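User: I'm putting together notes for a lab meeting next week and I want to include a structural view of one of the chains we've been expressing. I don't have a solved structure, so I'd like a prediction I can at least talk through. The sequence is below, exactly as it appears in our construct file.
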Amino acid sequence: MEEINPWKTLESDLKYDNNWISVTEHQVINPSGGKGIYGEIHFKNLAIGILPLDDDYNTWLVGQYRFPLKAYSWEIPEGGGPLGEDPLESARRELLEETGMSARNWKEIQRMHLSNSVSDELSIIYIATDLIQGIAMPEETEQLVVKKLPFDDAYQMVLNNEITDSMSVAAILKAKLLILNGEL
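Assistant: Thanks for the context. Below is the predicted structure for the 184-residue chain, given as structure tokens.
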């Protein structure tokens, strides 16, 4: 099958806009020829995730209440990176803000779209090693709990559905493969 766009946009209307997202409703002709609507969420930042690992294969998770889920969530350190900023600089800032750590070594391990049926949000995930502990500086909207644990415990949390955040799941599973293949 050719990689062509089978959708035809008839009209687009911006329905919502704030500092982080915009929502557009498109009047479309769908791939089978019928008229319909398509809602699209545009993200104004990259989604940045960091899996910190020390020499003993310990990692750090961040716990926080996630408003849209109405639930508490354990995740790798994450945040938004302005589209015009080097993603690695965003990762450095987020790791420091949420855990107080900085790292001498960084490795990009994954790029992925988080919900590509309705949004354009791109995620970039890094592994940070050779860590230096400092003081966390969370944003005013964040009430975080940071915990250090063996990487294999975090891996088990993914397998037991205790970690459900998509970037965290992807980072931990990818890191496990890298470790098993001797690449990390």
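A couple of points you could mention at the meeting. The chain has a mean pLDDT of 95. The beta strands are 8-17, 21-29, 35-43, 45-52, 58-66, 71-75, 78-82, 101-113, 122-133, 145-150.

User: Perfect, that's what I needed.
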